[in-house]
Amino acid sequence: MLVYTLVMLVPIFWSLGYTVFEGNPIIGFTFVGWDNILQLFTDPKVGDALLFTLKYAIVLTVGQVLVGYGLSLLYVFWLKKASGVIRTLVFFPVVLPTVAVALLFQALFAIAPQIGPVNSLLNFFGADSIDWFASGATAFWVIVIMDIWRSMGFYAVLLYAGLVDIPEEMFESARLDGASGWKLVRHIVIPLSLPVLFSSIIFSINGTLKVFDSVLALTNGGPGNTTTPLTLYMYQTSFTYGEYGYGSSIALMLTILCLLVTLFIFRSSRRDLTKG
Amino acid sequence: MTTARQRATKLVPLIAAIGVTAFALTGCSAGGSSEGGTTAPDKFSYLSFAENTSIQDTLTALSTGECSAENEALPLDITTQPQASYDQQLQLLAGQDALPVLFASGNTPQVAKDLNTGGKLVDVEQALADLDKSDAIIPAAQSTIDALYDGEQYVLPTEFNVEGIWYNKQLFAENGIEVPTTWDELVAAAEKLNAAGVIPFSADGQDGWPLTRLVGNYIFRDLGPDALQKVADGEAKLTDPEYVKAAEAVADLGAKGYFGPSVTSIDYMTAMNQFLTGQAGMFYMGSWALANFNDPAQNQIGAENVGFIPFPTVEGGAGSADQLAANVGVPLALSKSTYSDDVASWLGCFADNFGSSSLQNQGVITGFKVNTPVEDLPPLTQEVQTQIDATTQSVLWFEALFNAKAATTSQTNASQLVTGAMSPEDFMKAVQADIGN
Q1: Is the same domain home to B302 and B428?
Q2: From the candidates A16, A26, A36, A109, which should be mutated to test the interface with B, based on the most B CB atoms within 10 A?
Q3: Cα A150–A154–A158 angle (5° rounding)?
Q4: Residue B376 forms part of a structural domain
Q5: What's a GO cellular component annotated to this UniProt protein (chain A) (predicted)?
């Protein structure tokens, strides 16, 4: 309890306290009351960062869980016992350092100094090269593709563990009743794997709301602030601009957002399970 | 309902306790400026940007050469920190009153200003006067420091760079281009190069600052050398039409494709390579790039084919081309709390020898007098040195007087300005919003 208090609670309360101050260790701190909290509502960059964070979290959660679920179904129903090698290969990007993966994707989508494989493919089919990192809209999709590729192996294994727990007898009786293919998935697999699916969604949404390293390494939030999530804006505000108080206020906002989303998902899952 | 109210009532003291704890914890740490005494250090500690090796190498050379006696009394001890997290490290050290004896003063002039406001820096002007070495810093560097730090001197100019447009003499001759002296002539030269299939301007759009340098220089040439000081003082705004005109001029170069395809993805070394391999005709850069220009392995067009153009005048403008853009590289500061007699001896030796040692061993022009003549300087370096000697008034760069937030906004949006993803009005509006005047 003492260790937990020291490493978890003290820093949290410390950061909470900073929200009513402005300044940094060099110039000292001044009490500003609610100013930092109020600034959150008028700062357009917070709005942009919040929108980006939510968009990224929703798209990536859907992507990660769907692709992971698809892969886990592939492991269980098609590859079966031969899935070991494929599972290992698909899981491999999870253990790679984020910076290495970001460099890989920068090279894949590059237009300068050399044209990368993706643009070469576009050229092969007669399309012009795209400067993927020149606009927030295209850079967003590169981040999404990279992060899905990086994490799909983890979600596939997580969901696979849930699927192998479904008793074989359930499938056999369903098959005897004439269920197969999509019907089997819809009426047996999805309902019985709902708990692990919800766990995956909670994992994913909380992880993606706090996205930091992949964006920092791939686009550094740019161009401009078009791919800047709340975490990166918080980091820049605190450590680049030396505004510890306002940075802590952004952190508080992010914490509340994560709590609300988790509560929302828990409530939805409870309702669904009772219905099921 | 009653249960919910009871629960809420129980929560009130808990929330109040959390609030008080948070406030107390933060209050305890809310130190700020401390005017502690001096503690004599046992080593001459130097904290450097990891990316900058020339200052470290010059200091190491001094420690075994001209300053060996000072090094014996107080041994040099170098540590490094990546530039991206450097300011954070300085904040931590300053907060603990544990700044090294000598250190790079941060990524923006504002960091040194804050440290000085907190009473943590040595007054270098006074320290040099006490050592009878007031003339150690050259006048042009002194003028740049005055402009950067509101007339005070608490940093050492370990570089003195002038900036301008470097051009490929051979490409200019082949395309019948005269050296441009006005902005219109510059645009005309770019047009000819573009028509000949050469990238007119090679530029590092990934970092953005080489693009915003063009905006800043245009403002100085059009509105005069004090134009950005007025913005910093709140007497003018970047959103005023005469300032937006500068962003429009640079955006126009981008719209015509004069920065080549995919400027957003071009980084510093790629831009350098484009120029040094003859793919680009012009390159806005500082004189620190002389090391690359003088390196035959990098410079395939030959150092003799590289020329320097001061940023051209804008017709009818209040500025002139001899007001070269200048900076003092990575200025160093001395910690007040460790400034002892031994450190003062080091400073004296540094002031006497840093200029010549850096030029001799690193090929870097500094803001210090070259007390020992350096033989066999490459002609291009000699040309720049002459240019510096002739400079009477220098101007700063676009973000020099802005806070870190406005500087970041400016540089991260620069590529969007030249690709047309952001209008000149919106660009200036975004930067002005973060200046906060």
Answers
A1: yes
A2: A26
A3: 160
A4: yes
A5: plasma membrane
